[in-house]
Amino acid sequence: GESVGLHLPTLSVQEGDNSIINCAYSNSASDYFIWYKQESGKGPQFIIDIRSNMDKRQGQRVTVLLNKTVKHLSLQIAATQPGDSAVYFCAENIIVGDMRFGAGTRLTVKP
Amino acid sequence: KAGVTQTPRYLIKTRGQQVTLSCSPISGHRSVSWYQQTPGQGLQFLFEYFSETQRNKGNFPGRFSGRQFSNSRSEMNVSTLELGDSALYLCASSSGDSVYQETQYFGPGTRLLVL
């Protein structure tokens, strides 16, 4: 069936380096994507979103890239900081109100 | 603007009991979605309410139900609790004003433990 999946379950980076978290989706009808960050004991926190009519969107220290040809989404975090350590989820939307989440990638930032 | 709030934050129940969880969306938001998060299944969509009507529903048994009030606050109920219902229950709100999905903002969740 259609699903959202992440390539890497864990990612460890050095403080100050750039991080790239990848996500593959299989539903070509998905038209909206969100990246969330979830820290232990908290709900998912919105980071950045992108619609299917775009291929790149930038925020503060974060960039999301969407490649519809290969159904791939990535989150780039510049100058990764210890506070960025968390689990990152990509989510896709097909039907209003229903976001489908990937398994998540745990990002660990080493000082 | 205050964020999404959920009550209670923690709950312990025994098998066979029922439970009601509450969610207050961001002021002005009319869409509320509920999700279940477990280590094994990840984040799974339960249902979504807009203007007091359930618009969409995920693949969960009928023991899981919800409702939304005129002030957009929402409750979800789980009847005849099973051990496998132990999870973090999250609600998320969005404006709901567009035919297209808009950003969903999550609450802190309710941690339910079924013994």
The helicity of chain B comes to under 10%
Enumerate how many helices of chain A there are, as a single number. Answer: 0
Approximately what portion of the residues of chain A adopt beta-strand conformation? over 45%
E-strand count of chain B: 11
What's the main sheet of chain B like?
Answer: 7 strands, mixed
Proportion in helices of chain A: under 10%
Pair with the most extensive interface?
A-B, 25 and 27 residues
Task: Give a description of the structure.
The complex is a heterodimer of chains A (about 110) and B (about 120). Helix content of chain A is about 0%, strand content about 60%. Chain A has strands at about 5, 10-15, 20-25, 30-40, 45-50, 55-60, 60-65, 70-75, 85-95, 100, 105-110. By secondary structure, chain A is an all-beta fold. In chain A, strand 9 (about 85-95) and strand 10 form a beta hairpin. In chain A, the strands form two sheets. In chain A, strands 2, 4, 5, 9, 10 and 11 form a six-stranded mixed sheet that branches. By secondary structure, chain B is an all-beta fold. Chain B is about 0% helix and about 50% strand. In chain B, strands 2, 4, 5, 6, 9, 10 and 11 form a seven-stranded mixed sheet that branches. A four-stranded antiparallel sheet of chain B has the order 1-3-8-7, with no helix packed on it. In chain B, a hairpin with a 2-residue loop joins strand 5 and strand 6 (about 55). Chain B is globular. Classes of the chains: A mainly beta (about 110), B mainly beta (about 120).
